[in-house]
Write a structure and sequence with these properties.
globular; alpha+beta; 13 strands; 5 helices; 3-stranded mixed beta sheet
């Protein structure tokens, strides 16, 4: 099995207009997209496209579809980016599962490997609390061998960051230790530092059972923390970006909220 679990620490540090930082512990699944049915059949706590304590639904990713698998949707997207699909041998997805049926993914990462096991590209699927999504292909590496891309967000992630800020994706190798940095920059420099640091462990029913208690109601906790820290920043009068008023700056958004579709 190529699939695994990662116990992670997520850290955020806002640098301006007021410094604020916080961190929390989570776990993420590292799912070989060709192993999803096998994982569902062999682990009683995990199911694909049906309810369980932990579940994976293909419809939760990219455009909502009741017929296409997540792999098919990813390949369809890559074809629009002129990516050579013949080079792809394996795709692994780093993501939060549904937990007790509830799903929320601030960001998921696809690792695309060739026949020798080399990662040749990554894709970040960023989500917001409006359940919108935006896809970013990151297929160039830096001197460390990390996949890196600086790109305009053109996406409403938070009321406390500008839609036209720059995302700086830095995605490390998927190994025993896993690291990701996603920094937010405006025209004056760094605004927000976000990191994920994870340690790999075996995908097993025993681990999944333990994680019920180690990370109780994880996805609900993540969405609660997002809203809690937003409330704290609002009470401190952080500047707020209005989603509706910046609609013309939000582009290539998947599952657009009514604020983007109303005339």
């Amino acid at each position: 099995m190529n699939s695994a679990l990662y116990q992670c620490k997520i850290f955020h540090k806002r640098l301006k207009p007021v410094e604020r930082k916080f961190s929390y512990s989570v776990f993420m699944m590292s799912l070989d997209l060709d192993e999803l049915d096998s994982l569902s059949n062999n682990h009683w706590l995990f199911s694909r496209n049906s309810w369980n304590i932990y579940s994976f639904r293909d419809s939760d990713y990219f455009e909502k579809s009741e017929t296409l698998t997540v792999k098919e949707k990813l390949l369809e997207y890559l074809s629009t980016q002129n990516f050579d699909l013949l080079k792809i041998h394996r795709i692994t997805l780093q993501t939060f599962p549904r937990i007790f049926g509830y799903q929320f993914n601030p960001v998921s990462f696809y690792y695309i490997e060739n026949a020798t096991g080399e990662t040749i590209a990554t894709v970040a699927e960023v989500g917001n609390t409006f359940l919108e999504k935006k896809i970013y292909l990151i297929d160039e590496t830096d001197k460390r061998g990390w996949f890196r891309r600086k790109t305009p967000k053109d996406f409403y992630v938070s009321p406390f960051s500008k839609v036209n800020d720059i995302f700086d994706f830095q995605i490390g190798p998927k190994d025993k230790k896993w690291s990701v940095n996603i920094n937010d920059q405006d025209e004056e420099g760094l605004v927000l530092v976000s990191t994920i640091r994870g340690n790999k462990t075996k995908f097993s029913s025993a681990k999944l059972f333990w994680f019920i208690f180690r990370y109780p109601l994880l996805t609900l906790r993540v969405i609660f923390l997002i809203h809690w820290h937003a409330l704290v920043m609002w009470t401190r009068k952080f500047p707020i970006s209005n989603k509706t008023k910046t609609a013309n700056q939000q582009s290539q958004v998947i599952r657009p909220h009514k604020s983007l579709t109303k005339k």
